[in-house]
Design a protein that fits this description.
This is Acetate--CoA ligase. This protein is α/β, with parallel strands linked by helices. It folds into three domains: 19-78 and 263-514, Rossmann fold (3-Layer(aba) Sandwich), CATH 3.40.50; 79-253, Rossmann fold (3-Layer(aba) Sandwich), CATH 3.40.50.980; 518-620, 2-Layer Sandwich (GMP Synthetase, Chain A, domain 3), CATH 3.30.300. It is 30% helix and 25% strand. Strand 15 (260-266) and strand 16 (274-279) form a beta hairpin. The radius of gyration is 24 Å and the shape is globular. The protein binds ligand 6R9. The site of ligand 6R9 has 21 residues, from helix 11, strand 21, strand 27 and strand 28. Ligand 6R9 is lined by residues 266, 311-313, 388-391, 413-418, 438, 498, 500, 512, 515, 521, 526.
Length: 632
């Protein structure tokens, strides 16, 4: 696995952010904190857990039965009492918890902690009135509106397990997820708004619940006031009606630390998306700690994470983490370039955002449209910047640092995954930052770059990124596929293997290079090659398909598809468009190939597996490497 990468390690360049942005940071001194963790790993996490409220203390911090971890054994808690009650019944009752902004400036909704608390309690009572009980699964398919977060928190309040499905997914992706978890309730919205247009979601839900016998009721948030969608009363119920006469208090269900909090699907390499299961106690502690320490949340901060809660970033750093820290959070249903490419900078100025967490794809898009857009706005409120989802290349780092951060803000390039639940590698506030490098393991985590025998590789040599030993917010299993869970811990015995390739510099800073498996990260979203291929093959004209990721300056990667047609079908432009449309309808717009080539054959192994890396090498004009397993 050890390979040499073309990484320039000769002229390291480090930036140190201004003391004004970093003084009195929660993170403290990195080396000292890290030493404290090494001296007493479980004690380190227990100290953090004690900052939160528990109904019952844990007996033991950790039971590590490799590869299964239990954290805070027999501890009892509810994550929503920590996100809401803890603030409402202390000093933050009237503090703004949530500010929602739609596409235009007359669309704004604001909740104080107290208002959010009551809304969550009432919706939780509403869910109970539909018969939802602890352990039941609830699927949430909504755009970014306050009700999306309210639905998530209401589930957590009563111990129901939420599965949020990103509103950009199509019918079959939604159907697959509803069926996989056996959702009892689907909470949806009539429409999502994109570039001034209302895009129907309810019709997608109607199609997606066919052949999903577990679904008992669909709760529909009706946003369209002039022409409200019709509800079919035998199955569907209005979101507001469900809350209407409910009491505004709802006792929180005491959850065991190891009870599941949610299931979130992430693309797998085999075509079946994986339902990552997170547990209440450890997830709460991990997201609370990293939000507080990595982003340095203080009481007067205005916090904006641009991710949709349909992804893990939205779960951990758009909902749970920031509310656990009692932050004032901005959420928006905006597209970064609508009505123009100044919208996000406009929002930073308008709301006085101090902490801004976004993705390299967005940063690169803004770089392309030019500095004149951010220059129109006053961004001086910004104090901390963050990046996630794919490598933040040095050019994008520099631009983010200088143009957006005014050369004063620290940038936390955070490496982590749906599976890890929380930030694993980054540069903690106050530490020097190296463009292109995420940084070092956060205190509490042991991570390394190793060869295929698990030996640490020297600086400059590429290898597998691994995490050693358990951490509180690690996934507990994969829903109904525990065997797949164990695989993460089998590549390198004793280690969690992330399937990412990385390289270290001489100071231990880690640069993440890319995936070692067949996932394509497009604009920060993981797309499984197999998912797109199976969507293509489900079209009547397609015999076989293979897809690869092609490096793209804007999106990180784009998808290129190679398609073999069934005899009798002609490779026309019309058919090409039809196939792209077919993928859009099956998987949603994020998964559509930007290139589609008709071919006569595909490179395969003798065992019949498509060798995508050969296709990719050919496409990029590179040496395909070892092709000994190639069939022909
Ligand atoms: C949080 C999230 C995980 C994969 C991960 C890696 C890539 C995420 C990154 C990064 C380089 C970073 N990734 N953050 N690569 N630098 N800072 O994105 O979760 O959707 O599960 O994706 O994303 O390849 O393995 P998820």
């Amino acid at each position: 696995m050890a390979e040499d990468f073309d990484v320039n390690l000769d002229t390291p360049k480090y930036y140190t952010p201004s003391a004004k942005c970093t003084e009195n940071a929660w993170a403290g001194d990195y080396s000292q904190r890290y030493q404290e963790f090494l001296a007493d790993p479980t004690g380190f996490w227990e100290d953090i857990a004690r900052e939160l409220e528990w109904y019952q203390d844990w007996d033991e911090a950790l039971e590590w039965n490799y590869p299964y971890a239990k954290w805070f054994l027999n501890g009892k808690l509810n994550v929503t009492t920590n996100c809401l009650d803890r603030h409402v019944f202390n000093q933050r009752r009237n503090k703004v918890a949530l500010m929602w902004r739609g596409e235009t400036d007359d669309e704004e909704r604001i909740y104080t902690y107290k208002q959010l608390y009551h809304a969550v309690c009432r919706f939780a009572n509403g869910l109970k009135s539909l018969g939802v009980q602890k352990g039941d699964r609830v699927c949430i398919y909504m755009p970014v509106v306050p009700e999306q977060l309210i639905a998530m928190l209401a589930c957590a309040r009563i111990g129901a397990v939420h599965t949020v499905v990103f509103g950009g997914f199509g019918v079959s992706a939604l159907n697959q997820r509803i069926r996989a978890v056996g959702a009892k309730i689907v909470v949806a919205a009539d429409v999502t708004v994109r570039r001034g247009k209302a895009i129907p979601l309810k019709t997608i839900v109607e199609d997606a619940v066919v052949n999903a016998p577990s679904v008992e009721r669909i709760v529909v948030l009706r946003r369209e006031e002039t022409k409200p969608v019709e509800l079919h009363p035998e199955m569907e119920i209005d979101f507001e009606d469900l809350m209407e006469n409910q009491p505004r208090e709802c006792p929180a269900e005491p959850m065991d630390a190891e009870d599941p909090l949610f299931i979130l699907f992430t693309s797998g390499t085999t075509g079946e998306p994986k339902g990552i299961v997170h547990a209440c106690g450890g997830y709460m502690v991990g997201t609370y700690y990293t939000t507080k320490h990595v982003f340095d949340v203080k009481d007067n901060d205005v916090y904006w994470c641009t991710a949709d809660p349909g992804w893990i970033t939205g779960h951990s750093y758009g909902v749970y983490g920031p509310l656990l820290t009692g932050a004032t959070c901005l959420i928006t249903e905006t597209t970064p370039d609508y009505p123009d490419a100044g919208i996000w900078w406009n929002l930073i100025e308008e709301y006085g955002v101090t902490i801004f967490y976004t993705a390299p794809t967005a940063i690169r898009m803004f770089m392309r449209v030019g500095e004149e857009w951010p220059k129109k706005y006053n961004l001086s409120s910004l104090r901390v910047l963050g990046s996630v989802g794919e490598p933040l290349n040095p050019e994008a780092f520099e631009w983010f640092y200088h143009v957006i951060g005014g050369a004063k803000c620290p940038i936390a390039d955070t490496w982590w995954q749906t599976e890890t639940g929380m930030h694993m590698i980054t540069t903690m506030i106050g530490e020097p930052m190296r463009p292109g490098f995420a940084g070092k393991p956060v205190p509490g985590i042991v991570a390394d770059v190793v060869d295929s025998d698990g030996n640490s590789v020297p600086p400059g040599t590429g290898g597998l990124l691994v995490v050693k030993g358990p951490w509180p917010s690690m996934m507990r299993t994969i829903w109904e596929n525990d065997e797949r869970y164990r695989k993460y811990w089998e590549t390198i015995p004793g280690c969690y293997t992330a399937a990412d390739l990385a390289v270290k510099d001489e100071n231990g800073y880690i640069m993440v290079i890319g995936r070692s498996d067949d996932l394509i990260v497009v604009a920060g979203h993981n797309i499984g090659t197999a998912e797109v291929e199976s969507a293509l093959v489900s079209h009547k004209a397609v015999a076989e398909a293979a897809v690869i990721g092609k490096p793209d300056p804007l999106k990180g990667n784009t998808i290129k598809a190679f398609v073999i047609l069934i005899q009798g079908h002609q490779p026309t432009e019309k058919l090409r468009n039809e196939l792209v449309y077919h993928v859009r309808m099956t998987l949603g717009p994020i998964a559509i190939p930007s290139e589609l080539e008709f071919v006569e054959s595909l490179p395969k192994t003798r065992s019949g597996k498509i060798m995508r890396r050969v296709l990719k090498a050919k496409e990029m004009g590179m040496d395909p490497g070892d092709i000994s397993t190639l069939e022909d």
